[in-house]
């Protein structure tokens, strides 16, 4: 029930909570989370790695906003850039032959960065600007389709390349909540391709040749079905073999792309066996399948600019977002090799017809204020050596986390790649832990959608002391659960 006094006139906690219950629908939310007494946290301000709510409580932000705020909260030097750009030119179109200075500069900078990190294959890389992650994935997929469509003689799809439309992903992934990204996650059933297959007979549902979106197990010991590992294979080799088998099962002529996160974020900071990506690269080259790296969360966090650098493998298309603006404004980008651009956008047929445009854009693509902020964030990353810091600080955070948590009954694994840290639990109680950490300990972290992992992505600038407090609090919560073992046993791991 909404109170009669608008929250603009009386923004007290009770008033805000009541209005929130009545009017706001939260992403990944459940009405219970909103309605339970005191369960709603209304943040009011942030500084460094701390957040404050409207009741004056202080929180340690181990989630960096929403896995974005690598540089921490409240930096005036970034806000100033936004202010100045807004005063100069807040927005202009970035469509067709229109653009702005910050948009061009950001594209140039990202192209240079990708060449620096991935080498010659990214020489002359092209950048399409977005403001978020899922829309970057949609654009990457659209670009892959266009690339295959134009891959025939003189930019035609005559040899049947138009058939290359299907896409393979990894289980336990998260690529976003719009239709294509949601379809890439087999565990999501409410929306996307899986919803459309409801009503299919069971035999068809399991038939990979009929599916537009199919997936294989992630190449990590805890996420791969061991029955599928052949004698003499490690998990990376087994997953690569399964990727090849899946391409052949579907028919290589119909597979457009393979998409993956270098480190699964929502999945619980899961990085992969080092053998997997080099083999996957060979397989994708052999069968003409584009590799799309979803670096939306990993960008700037793993101790390298791009997570894929950790495996020494260059993908074909890279999608980034989140940390590129450290959360100060929404921002994202799709970076792709010039080779793809030449075929997709500069083929003989396209050259002859101005009307052969790429039917894709977002109103906010290349927003000059967002671009100016992203440029400033990249400057700060370079100035303060924050990529190396992410590696150093991440190693320290992992040590602290292992020291506090390893050996606890409820803990199966503690892992990390830079400042992406994960705790794998023996029960499906991750959401309960998330709530208790927030409400009882005033620590922000996230439960994975697989229900048994916790994700922490602290700002790179977090201190040992702040992180230790968070780890200690997590130990307390998990230990208290140990004392009520039955509560945890009531939610055994489903997979
Ligand atoms: C790896 C990855 N891909 C895609 C997305 C979706 O990004 P957005 O929420 O900006 O659409 C996310 C968001 O958490 C993500 O972590």
From TrEMBL:
Record field: compositional bias (Polar residues): 1-15
Keyword field: Aminotransferase, Pyridoxal phosphate, Transferase
Entry keyword annotation includes Repeat: no
SUPFAM superfamilies attached to this UniProt entry: PLP-dependent transferases
Coiled coil: none
Signal peptide region: none
Similarity comment text for this entry: Belongs to the class-III pyridoxal-phosphate-dependent aminotransferase family.
Region (Disordered): 1-28
Organism (species): Ascobolus immersus RN42
Gene Ontology MF terms in the entry: identical protein binding; pyridoxal phosphate binding; transaminase activity
Cofactor(s) demanded: pyridoxal 5'-phosphate
Domain of life: Eukaryota
Record protein name field: PLP-dependent transferase
